[in-house]
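> call design_seq(struct)
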């Protein structure tokens, strides 16, 4: 009897142990399934960000104001170019934050840090607040803001005050009375102040789209830029640090402007007319002729020529200079430089082709 009782007790303990382990396994599997579902949702959302938007039917060829472009005539087509005879000279930052919103540094620290990195101008873009000039010598301060709209964030460069409006059309109109409106980080998650293509199409008046945002978890937005360009939008691609800390995320993405003199008015005019390029590091020069476009950079790189539909119409590797001969049916042509040594990019502004 003692042996039977011991065996029964042992069997009961074994039964409870197996039952507990089984329940633990069930919970583990349930947790694994939940994690898998969550990862699938993230993956699908990521695919939606990267999906080819270029076949959609919306067309907005005349929905935003025309910049001042140089018309270059050939026998078969007209080229409308944003590139002036001025060289790209002035390095600038147009997306950064201070302690006035959600940054870690004072406005003075921000300006001094960028000055030490040989920037010529900085637009501080605190959230829903125009930060005052801290008066740092040796670098041009440009007033700015990052407005929160009901669709996504909008950078305002050159504005002197913020607005209480939240509808994106009204925010953009307010900014562009005096400054430049730019769709901020459009490939950030759409539920977290990014922009879906549908939202971009419903608020089409901004002059710029932030194609390169230096935050590592945000994807390059060339896909949405090409989607807008393919539909006939004349819109410029910008780059910015989105700096919140000068010890962590500074000097990773910026613009270089072509203008004869450094002043706020000249910078705003250059941004409006596309007289700049956007970069993570590589330099870029572009010359436009009646039959071709020539791009140059200092270090060996892959040079891509991108046309309507986001098509890579020509790709040349291991060069510092390349030419693209215009056919006339491209719609637009823009150049991308991918530096060989580190794969960092520089993006030129689009040239528009009209037969």
């Amino acid at each position: 009897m003692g042996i039977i009782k011991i065996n029964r007790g042992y069997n009961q303990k074994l039964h409870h142990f197996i039952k507990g382990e089984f329940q633990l396994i069930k919970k583990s599997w349930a947790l694994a399934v939940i994690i898998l579902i969550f990862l699938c949702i993230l993956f699908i959302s990521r695919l939606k960000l990267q999906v080819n938007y270029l076949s959609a039917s919306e067309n907005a060829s005349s929905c935003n104001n025309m910049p001042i472009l140089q018309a270059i005539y050939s026998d078969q087509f007209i080229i409308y170019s944003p590139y002036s005879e001025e060289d790209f000279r002035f390095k600038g930052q147009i997306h950064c934050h201070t302690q006035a919103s959600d940054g870690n540094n004072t406005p003075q620290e921000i300006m001094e840090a960028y000055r030490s990195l040989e920037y010529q101008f900085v637009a501080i873009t605190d959230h829903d607040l125009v930060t005052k000039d801290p008066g740092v010598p040796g670098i041009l301060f440009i007033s700015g803001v990052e407005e929160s709209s009901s669709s996504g964030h909008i950078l305002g460069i050159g504005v002197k005050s913020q607005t209480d409006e939240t509808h994106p059309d009204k925010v953009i109109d307010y900014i562009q009375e005096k400054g430049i409106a730019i769709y901020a980080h459009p490939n950030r998650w759409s539920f977290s102040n990014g922009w879906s293509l549908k939202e971009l199409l419903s608020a089409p008046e901004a002059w710029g789209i932030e194609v390169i945002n230096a935050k590592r978890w945000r994807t390059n937005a060339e896909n949405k830029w090409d989607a807008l360009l393919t539909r006939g939008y004349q819109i410029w691609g910008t780059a910015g640090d989105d700096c919140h800390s000068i010890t962590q995320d500074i000097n990773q993405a910026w613009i270089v402007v072509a203008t004869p003199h450094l002043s706020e008015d000249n910078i705003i005019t250059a941004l409006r007319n596309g007289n700049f390029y956007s970069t993570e590091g590589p330099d870029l020069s572009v010359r436009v002729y009646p039959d071709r476009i020539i791009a140059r950079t200092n270090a060996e790189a892959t040079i891509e020529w991108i046309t309507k539909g986001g098509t890579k119409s020509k790709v040349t590797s291991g060069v510092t200079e390349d030419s693209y001969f215009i056919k006339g049916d491209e719609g637009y042509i823009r150049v991308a430089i991918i530096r060989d040594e580190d794969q960092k990019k520089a993006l030129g502004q689009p040239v528009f082709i009209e037969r």
